[in-house]
Write a structure and sequence with these properties.
2 copies of one chain form a homodimer. Helix content of chain A is 27%, strand content 26%. Chain A is of the alpha/beta class. In chain A, helix 4 packs across helix 5 and helix 4 packs across helix 9. Chains A and B meet through helix 4, strand 15, helix 8 and strand 16 of A and helix 4, strand 15, helix 8 and strand 16 of B. Strand 16 of chain A pairs antiparallel with strand 16 of chain B.
């Protein structure tokens, strides 16, 4: 089969790879569409010790089942493989399973014609759902999960809250779209990349600003700050922008530098929520949201052939990709 | 009147001070008992920019009303003076009021024979309640508030949880006692001071250990970590000790150094809760807990004369005070 393989820092190659082993007791999926995630880019930059080349990246995937009880069905993949029996899995928080494994991290990922994955990781989807839309399930679920955790503890409802999203990548954009869907009418989004700001502005759901420009919103004014970057700088910014008694929802994993102002967090009783991926219920809810069109027109999502994946990685790396989400389409699809 | 005045770094003096102004429209209180708080020590060390000498410190106070509609009544003081009309005050979170002021910070504190305080800051107490016990209301409320915030979001009840308290000062000890009262049966408490460890051990409610010794409990095993120190080191320790999906309740304000592992907090979906003081309801609940004896024998609390306050500050500073709480008794009481 063909696959896009991460071979070295700043290098991915579209090349022939062996098909997934046929003697596996897992489902074989012929892939239809697979999104490029920020964490794939992190690996590409050589910054993710967990992803060692050569490795097929990619985990935001939709495809057709080629064997077993669900043969012929189109499915969304839950890329997080978990044990199913630990206290976290049994408690509805399988994302915290100590044995969790993401496809495209140690196991081969989905930037390929085919992939093997356990049957329990196949999620039902409407059979007439568009592939590219369905491939957005995973990033939408990441944003939805973060907002869900914040929503459970926020003092007043989201529909009465003022929210700031830091970072106009796909997690940030989906977070803004979900906040809007939930009735939040006072949303800001900050990004230093002018192309990203342009895309965010075109959605017409939030006030877009440049964090290093002169139109930065008032400090201490946001009930909820979603940090979809996760750097020392954005944590410092989150600490300053959030209101007394408010919430910082921390989704990004850019670095582990200092930046969080724990003194202000303490004196102003601010909550910092760590977020990692999603539960299975978040994934299912995201398929529903996307299928219903609740997140509006998704024409800002860009589609390219998997065979041109290397150029896509390069464009994102060089800040030349206006769209915060590029979905790659394998030739077999 | 006599008062204990913070005059310089590492210096408090028991001396004559003018009585509180008689033309005030506030209540005049003749003080019965006033505890020394960690934040008083912080000022004494010259580390609190908010407390500028010369200043009468002290805010954990109980006394008798000398004027107005409640004349003759014994009351606990709510030392936090708030506006009463902002969104935080109206929303039950007066501790977040932007106009809040603590006695003994800019206004004179309670290490004195008398103090003025707004009538709305007087809390009813059982008239036969012991003064020293009643003076514990404020620190108990601080611990109770932190546990209440954690309890609202913890995944399983406290009675099924494993809890770690970092710091055997009064906030840490009260936190352990409150956890025990709420049915938590698996409590650890860490302190580097051997005298503090001895006192904590004497309570017989938790496993006491030395964080820089060789009996440190297993990392990643605590549903709830209460950091009652709040230093870079204890935040690093909190980050390591808390379980995936668990809670760090951050109460201490020792420094603002780096230490929190925001990467682990994100990957393991850990919540960091900033805590500041208490609500009026927390104070009322704390009076009830103390009066009912729900926190066990309080014979570990030490009492000294206000006139010997300077020695008490010195003993705490030098790590020679075995008791995590010293309550000072004015001569007029």
């Amino acid at each position: 089969m063909k696959a896009l393989v991460y071979t070295d820092t700043l290098e991915v190659q579209y090349r022939d790879e062996p098909n997934p082993p046929a003697d596996s007791n897992e489902a074989l999926i012929q892939l239809e569409a697979v999104g490029i995630c920020g964490s794939d880019m992190h690996a590409y930059h050589g910054h993710d010790a967990r992803r060692v080349p050569p490795l097929i990246l990619g985990h935001e995937a939709v495809g057709k089942v080629m064997n077993g009880s669900q043969e012929g069905k189109r499915v969304v993949l839950n890329p997080l493989i978990t044990c199913g029996v630990c206290e976290h899995c049994l408690g509805g928080r399988s994302n915290l399973c100590a044995h969790r494994e993401l496809i495209g991290m140690k196991r081969p990922g989905a930037f390929a014609d085919y992939i093997n994955i356990p049957e329990q990781n196949l999620l039902e989807m409407p059979q007439d759902m568009d592939s590219v839309t369905a491939a957005l399930t995973e990033p939408v679920a990441t944003s939805l999960h973060a907002i869900y955790l914040a929503e459970k503890i926020i003092h007043r409802p989201l529909s009465e809250s003022r929210a700031l999203v830091i970072g106009g990548g796909s997690i940030g954009v989906f977070a803004a779209l979900i906040l809007k869907h939930k009735g939040c009418g006072d949303i800001y989004l900050g990004d230093t990349n002018p192309l990203r700001r342009e895309t965010a502005e075109s959605l017409d759901i939030c006030t877009v600003y440049n964090p290093i420009g002169d139109d930065v919103p008032e400090a201490g004014s946001f009930d909820l700050v979603i940090d979809a970057v996760g750097s020392g700088r954005t944590r410092a910014s989150s600490s300053a922008m959030v209101k007394a008694g408010g919430i910082i929802s921390h989704v990004g994993l850019q670095d582990n530098e200092a930046g969080l102002d724990t003194r202000r967090l303490t004196l102003e009783e601010i909550t910092f929520l760590g977020n990692y991926t999603y539960s299975v219920l978040d994934l299912k809810a995201s398929i529903d949201l996307l299928y219903q069109g609740a997140l509006g027109s998704l024409d800002w999502v860009e589609t390219r052939a998997l065979g041109e994946g290397a150029a896509a990685f390069r464009d994102i790396h060089e800040g030349k990709a206006a769209s915060p989400k590029i979905v790659l389409i394998p030739e077999v699809a």
